[in-house]
Amino acid sequence: MAEIDFRNPKYYTNRELSWILFDHRVLAEARDRAIPLFERLKFLSISASNLDEFFMIRVASLQDMVNAKYTKTDIAGLKPQEQLKLLDPAIHSLVELQYSTYNRSLVPQLRQNGLQIIRQHEELTESEAVFADAYFEEHVYPVLTPMAVDSSRPFPLIRNKTLNIAALVQKKGGKGELEFATVQVPGVLSRVVELPSQDGRKVILLEEIIERNMHKLFLNYDIVCAHPYQIMRNADLTIEEDEAADLLKEIEKQLKKRQWGEAIRLEVEAEMDKRLLKILKEALGIDDSYIYRIDGPLDLTVLMKLYGLEGFEHLKSPVHTPQPVPELQPGCDIFAELRKGDVLLHHPYQTFEPVVDFIRQAARDPEVLAIKQTLYRVSGNSPIIRALALAAENGKQVTVLVELKARFDEENNIVWAKMLEKAGCHVIYGLVGLKTHCKITLVVRREEDGIRRYVHLGTGNYNDATAKLYTDIGLMTCHEDVGEDATAVFNMLSGYSEPLIWNKLSLAPIWLKEKFLYLIDRERRYALEGRPARIIAKMNSLCDEDIIEALYRASAAGVRIDLIVRGICCLKVGIRGVSENITVRSIVGSFLEHSRIFYFENDEHYEIYCGSADWMPRNLERRVEILFPVVDPGLKERIVHILRELLRDNVKASILQEDGSYEKVNRRGKAPFQVQEAFCREAVALAGREDQETLSDKRTFIPEISH
C-alpha cells in the first residue's frame, strides 16, 4: 500500500466554513420547538451576535489578505479569494434562515403568547400613535442629530455597528433635487419601547418611532422615503507592538480606528428605495455581495432586550443557581481546606464564589505576602478587581497581568489596569507579540513551617458574570511542585527567563504543542503494540494542522478517539485508513461549553489534563497558555465522569458526519439524556448531602470508558 499523505488538503475542512456550520447549530436551538419560546429568542440573538463578530474579524481578515494580494492556501487548500467566494452564499443562506425563523416561527408564537411586535409604525392604532409621538418629543428628539449631505456637507462618517436611518428629502413644494440625509438611532436609549395596550402587550422598535417622526427633523423638507441601515467595519486591530513605546496608548489609539475601519457589510431594509441604496453603496464603497437586504428588524441582537422583558418567566427555562462547593463552604478558611487536599470546581454548576473568596481572604490575611494573577476578561463590576486593589492597599505585593489585547474587551481592560495601578498594584500590560490567555492565580503565604504557595488554575476567565453561563473547570491546590511552577510562570511574564524544567505545568507557545503531540503519539505507539490506547479531548475549536495530522496517524494505528468540539472543527471523520476511529460531537445548550479537558489512556494508567488552550495555531503558537494535570485520584475520577456524561448526551449533541454536516444524535428508543441538566441536578444533590460526601468518594463513578 502507498503511504497515506495525512497532510492532503482534501482531509481538512476550511475553518470559516466550519464556523458557519457552528452558527447553524446555534440557530437550530432557536428553531427547536421543544425549547421555551424566550430561550429560542435568545439563541437567535446569539447567532446574530456570533455572525457580527465573524464578519468584523474573520471576513475582514480575509478581505485584508485579498487586498494585500496574499495567495497562500489554508489548511483545506483554499486561497483567501476562494474562501470569500464560498462564504458569500453560505452567509447569505444563514441570514435568510435567521429571518425566516424570526418571521415565520417566533413572531407568530410571541403573538399567541401575548406579546406583539409592531413591525411598521403604520400598524399603530390612533392611541398608540399618540403615545409614540409623545415619546419621540419627550425622550428621543432632544438626543438626535440629523445630518444632511450637500456640496458643503460631505457624507458623514458612519460608526461601526450603529443603527441609522437614511432618507431622501426634497424641499417643500417639490422644488429642487432629492437630497440625502441620515440620522443615527441613539444607542443610549432602549431600542425596545413598550406601548400602552388593552389587548396583551405590544412593543415597537425605536427606529420605527423615529422614522414616523422624521419630518420633524427636516422642517423645510418633504420626506420622500426613509429606511434603516447598519454598516459593519473591519474591527481586526493592527497593533505595532514592536514600534509602540507605550502599549496602553497604542491600543487606545487603535480602538478609535475600529469605529472607522473599512466597511465590510451593509444591512438595509429589504424594501429600501433603490436610489437611497445606490447612494449608500457608492459612499461606503461596498460590493454588492456584502449588501444584505433584510426582511425584518436590522440587528437581531435586539432580541436579547425582548428576552429581558419582565412577566414572561413561564416562557423561559428555570434559572440554575450555582451550588456551593462541598469542600469550600462559605466562611471557611480556604487555605486550611486546601492544605487537606486539592479541590476541583465545576462551573457554572458549582459557584465561582470560592475563587473570589480565595483572593478576598488573601487580601485580608496578615500572613499573605504576595498575590499574582493573570486577567483576560473580567466583569463590569468585578469583585476580583476590588479584592486585588484591597490587597495592594493592605500592603501586599500584588502583581497583575492585564491582557490589553483581549478582543472587544480592550477598553474595559484599560480601565481596570489604570484602576489597579492607582491602588498600588504592579500591572503588566501583556507581552509583545503574544496574548496572555492563561488563567492562573498565585498566593504566597508565610506559615509556621515556612513559605507556602497556593494556586488556582482554570479553563475560563476570572469573570464572575460569565462563570454563571460558561462551563469551566478550576483546580485549587497548594501542591509544592505546582506552586514552584506558578512562580516560574509569573517570573517569565514579568521579564525573567524561563526555567530549565517544569514540574507539572506545560506552557505555550514554547512547550505545549510538543507536549500534546507527544501524548497523542504515545497513544499511537501503544495501539501498534496492542496495548490499551484511547484519547478523549474536549475543547472549543480544533484547527491546528499538526495536531490533526497526529490524530489521523493515531486513528490509523487503531487508537479510539472521541472529540467534543463545540465550534470550529477542521478535522474530517470516516476517511478510510485515516479517521475511521475518530468521532466528533458538538454540544450546544443553555450554557456555553468552554472547558478544555484532555484524557490520555497511557496503557491503563490514564492521565487527565485541563487548560486554557484550544487546539488552534493561535493558542499553541501565539499565546501564553497553561496546561495543568489533575493528579488526585478522586478528582481524576470526577473528570472522567464529566467526560463520560458529555459523551452520553443525546439531546443537545450533534455528531459530525462523513460529508462534513452535523446531525443530532439518533436516540433509537433510548431515554433522552441532556448532560447540562444532569450536571445541574448532580451539583444540587452534592451540595445537599449532610455528610458532604463528594462524587470523587464514590467508586460507582469510575466509568469503564476504556472498553
- Text of the CATH class of the largest domain: Alpha Beta
Structural class: alpha/beta
Task: Please state roughly what percent of the residues sit in beta strands, choosing from under 5%, 5-15%, 15-25%, 25-35%, 35-45% or over 45%.
Answer: 15-25%
Distance between the termini: 30 Å
Average pLDDT taken over every residue: 91
Write the CATH fold name of the largest domain: Endonuclease, Chain A
Shape, please? globular
Give the radius of gyration.
28 Å
* CATH A-level architecture of the largest domain: 2-Layer Sandwich
Please provide the count of β strands: 27
CATH homology group of the largest domain: Endonuclease Chain A
What are the segments in which pLDDT stays under 50 over at least 5 consecutive residues? 241-245, 690-707
Number of domains: 4
Major β-sheet profile: 10 strands, mixed
* Helical proportion, percent range: 25-40%
Number of helices: 18
Search tags:
single chain; 707 residues; alpha/beta; Methane Monooxygenase Hydroxylase, Chain G, domain 1; polyphosphate kinase like; Endonuclease, Chain A; 4 domains; 10-stranded mixed beta sheet; 8-stranded mixed beta sheet; 18 helices; disordered C terminus
